[in-house]
């Protein structure tokens, strides 16, 4: 199962490299947004979107620094003759043997997976029997300005309280860029969309009680004092069958594939000589 996921992920990355967004170049070698995203998904086992929003940018920066470091070390390794050493060549040959076997297994599994079919009837039946699985929590799109002291936060609120509509939003973004100490500051304090429970309790309680287009009073958390701007709010809902159909198809297909593979392995073992 994990091997199949690796194959699909690799193919996806290869298909998007042509339109990848370059973040930095290291001695002419581009490091792209897609490369960073791929590393993040691997590091979090595909759960990067579940990481608290205020920590996502910190992780992105760390991964980018790691990729830069790899490029620098690789360049130095080439210059200092590492690639020509006996130790490197032996390890390289061992890695090639492992990759050859793993790639053969991946391609074999992908071909077997492509043979598996799931009917529309089964997909609809799963949706009707598991609708609670597709419930989306109430979510909000918010910005915040993080400062160290309550007096700083009160000054910001005072500066903003007379503004409304676009003027309030524009001014808030400007202040976030110039005064916020949080990692989202350079982005105008933008935290994107998040649902109930993703933020620390004090922040969560305040932001979900706000009206769209308004700012909060200073909110104290373990990180400091926040002034919050609520940009949008989405009510809880159940996603439609059309929206989730591809997801259900893939899940049922993988479950069916797992059962087929168990039978296939038993058949292959019966024909093999295992001592």
Keywords:
9 helices, two-stranded antiparallel ribbon, Chitinase A, domain 3, alpha+beta, flat, 4-stranded antiparallel β-sheet, 275 residues
Compact description:
This protein has nine helices and eight strands. By secondary structure, the protein is α+β, with helices and mostly antiparallel strands. The chain folds into two domains: 2-115, no CATH class; 138-235, Chitinase A, domain 3 (Roll), CATH 3.10.50.40.
Explain how this protein is built:
The chain has about 280 residues and is an alpha+beta fold. It folds into two domains: about 1-115, no CATH class; about 140-235, Chitinase A, domain 3 (Roll), CATH 3.10.50. About 55% of the residues lie in helices and about 15% in strands. It contains nine helices and eight strands. It has helices at about 1-15, 35-45, 55-80, 85-115, 120-130, 150-160, 165-180, 200-205, 240-270; strands at about 20-25, 30, 135, 140-145, 190-195, 220, 225-235, 235-240. It has a four-stranded antiparallel sheet, with helices on both faces. A two-stranded antiparallel sheet has the order 1-2. Helix 5 (about 120-130) packs across helix 9. The chain is flat, with a radius of gyration of 25 Å. Residues about 1-20 have low confidence and may be disordered.
Please state the average pLDDT score: 90
Spatial sequence of strands, sheet with the most strands: 5-4-7-6
Distance between the termini: 26 Å
Cα gyration radius (Å): 25 Å
Largest sheet: 4 strands, antiparallel
What is the string of helix and strand elements? HEEHHHHEEHHEHEEEH
- pLDDT under 50 segments (min length 5)? 1-19
Coarse structural class? alpha+beta
Shape: flat
Q: Can you tell me the number of structural domains?
A: 2
């Amino acid at each position: 199962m994990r091997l199949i996921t690796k194959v699909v992920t690799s193919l996806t990355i290869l298909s998007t490299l042509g339109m990848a967004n370059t973040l930095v170049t290291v001695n002419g070698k581009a490091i792209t947004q897609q490369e960073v995203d791929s590393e993040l998904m691997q590091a979090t086992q595909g759960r990067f979107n579940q990481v608290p929003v205020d920590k996502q940018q910190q992780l992105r920066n760390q991964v980018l620094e790691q990729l830069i470091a790899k490029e620098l070390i690789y360049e130095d390794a080439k210059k200092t003759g590492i690639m020509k050493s006996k130790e490197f060549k032996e390890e390289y040959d061992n890695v090639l043997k492992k990759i050859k076997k793993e790639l053969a297994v991946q391609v074999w599994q992908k071909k077997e997976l492509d043979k598996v079919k799931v009917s529309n009837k089964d997909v609809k039946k799963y949706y009707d029997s598991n609708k609670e699985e597709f419930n989306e929590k109430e979510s909000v799109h918010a910005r915040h300005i993080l400062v160290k002291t309550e007096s700083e936060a009160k000054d910001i609120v005072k500066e903003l309280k007379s503004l409304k509509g676009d003027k309030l939003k524009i001014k808030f973004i400007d202040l976030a860029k110039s005064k916020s100490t949080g990692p989202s500051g350079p982005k105008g304090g933008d935290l994107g969309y998040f649902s109930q429970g993703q933020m620390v309790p004090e922040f969560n309680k305040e932001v979900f009680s706000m009206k769209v287009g308004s700012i909060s009073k200073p909110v104290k958390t373990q990180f400091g004092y926040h002034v919050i701007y609520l940009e949008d709010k989405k009510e809880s809902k159940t996603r439609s069958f059309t929206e989730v159909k591809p997801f259900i198809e893939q899940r049922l297909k993988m479950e069916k594939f797992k059962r087929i593979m168990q039978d296939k392995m038993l058949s292959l073992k019966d024909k093999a000589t295992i001592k």
